[in-house]
Amino acid sequence: MEVSILAFGIAKDIVKASKIKIELEPGADTRVLRKTLETSYPALAGLKSYMIAVNQQYANEDTLLKAQDEIAIIPPVSGG
Amino acid sequence: MIDIQILESTLNTQEAIQAVSGVQCGALITFTGTVRDNTTGRKVLRLEYECYQAMALGQMKALAENALGQYNIQHISIHHRMGILIPGDIAVIIAVGSAHRADAFAACQYLIDTLKQTVPIWKKEVFTDGEVWVSAHS
């Protein structure tokens, strides 16, 4: 399945776009997504940390993903 | 009452205070976060803020609801600015109205501390000799 991923802050610089599309096996979870992303964009693994958000909520390590989900890479936040 | 706003324009402290005012409130506490002109001695030219707007609004609403549940307070206003800010500009205002001051002080501290940890907002510091996404690597 193809999923769309939003990228913000330094993640946007790393993937060189504010939105990318990647191919995942059906039934993939956020752990698989992170591995896939880090293979294509090794600099993500060099961040202090990053979270995955699914449908505007922070996801767990094993949240199952669906093609229509709104998925985002959330690098360390720095508001305020 | 919860008043959450993400704005591209200059923030107004008086507006945030007005939003949390009421005759039942004896304490109005505000935290104002402004842009410093240096980070560990490095001269800051500007900060560039961006956010994941829909999620940021949702996260700020959720943390305001948590604060209303945890503290004896009546009103919360959170205004955060986006875009390019220069030293002296206001980046964030948090205002809390409550009957008595102790809970308002505590809630205000909880709100800014939690906002900095959980709300998807990012800032890039631009120096005279480089730039860095704050907190990305250390």
From TrEMBL, chain A:
The keyword Nucleotide-binding applies. InterPro entries: Beta-grasp_dom_sf, MOCS2A, Mopterin_synth/thiamin_S_b, ThiS/MoaD-like. Pfam families: ThiS (PF02597). GO terms for biological process: Mo-molybdopterin cofactor biosynthetic process. It comes from the Bacteria. One of its GO terms (cellular component) is molybdopterin adenylyltransferase complex. GO terms for molecular function: nucleotide binding. Coiled coil: none annotated. Gene3D superfamilies: 3.10.20.30. Keywords: Nucleotide-binding. PANTHER family: MOLYBDOPTERIN SYNTHASE SULFUR CARRIER SUBUNIT (PTHR33359:SF1). Belongs to the MoaD family. This is Molybdopterin synthase sulfur carrier subunit. It comes from Arachidicoccus ginsenosidivorans.
Automatic annotation (TrEMBL), chain B:
Pathway: Cofactor biosynthesis; molybdopterin biosynthesis. Gene3D superfamilies: Molybdopterin biosynthesis MoaE subunit (3.90.1170.40). One of its GO terms (molecular function) is molybdopterin synthase activity. Keywords: Molybdenum cofactor biosynthesis. It holds the Pfam family MoaE. GO terms for biological process: Mo-molybdopterin cofactor biosynthetic process. It catalyses: 2 [molybdopterin-synthase sulfur-carrier protein]-C-terminal-Gly-aminoethanethioate + cyclic pyranopterin phosphate + H2O = molybdopterin + 2 [molybdopterin-synthase sulfur-carrier protein]-C-terminal Gly-Gly + 2 H(+). Its EC number is 2.8.1.12. Belongs to the MoaE family. PANTHER family: MOLYBDOPTERIN SYNTHASE RELATED (PTHR23404). Heterotetramer of 2 MoaD subunits and 2 MoaE subunits. Also stable as homodimer. The enzyme changes between these two forms during catalysis. This is Molybdopterin synthase catalytic subunit.
